[in-house]
Amino acid sequence: MHLNEAIELLKKIVKYSTIDGQKHLDLSVATAHERPNMQRALVITRTEVEKGTITDQELKQRLGID
Q: How many CB atoms lie within 10 A of CB 24?
């Protein structure tokens, strides 16, 4: 799985928070079948941020949680 694929996958679990106007990633909405791939996508995106391939802010913008 590549960074772009991971981001597209994670977009499926972006949900609004109980705090007005805030969004977050919510693994609880993923099915048991989807969860391992979602977790892998999280690892991939965080690794790419740590490597400097993408900034944390860029990742949040692409996920729609900024």
A: 13
Residue with tokens 């979602």: 38
pLDDT tens string, the chain, 66 residues long: the values are: 999 999 999 999 999 888 777 899 999 999 999 999 999 999 999 999 999 999 999 999 999 998
CA distances from 52 to 35, 37, 57, 58, 63 (A): 26, 22, 12, 11, 17
Q: What is the pTM of this model?
A: 0.87
What angle separates helix 3-10 from helix 35-51, to the nearest 10 degrees?
130
DSSP labels for 2-32? -HHHHHHHHGGGEEE-SSTT-EEE-GGGS-T
Per the document, the length of the chain is: 66
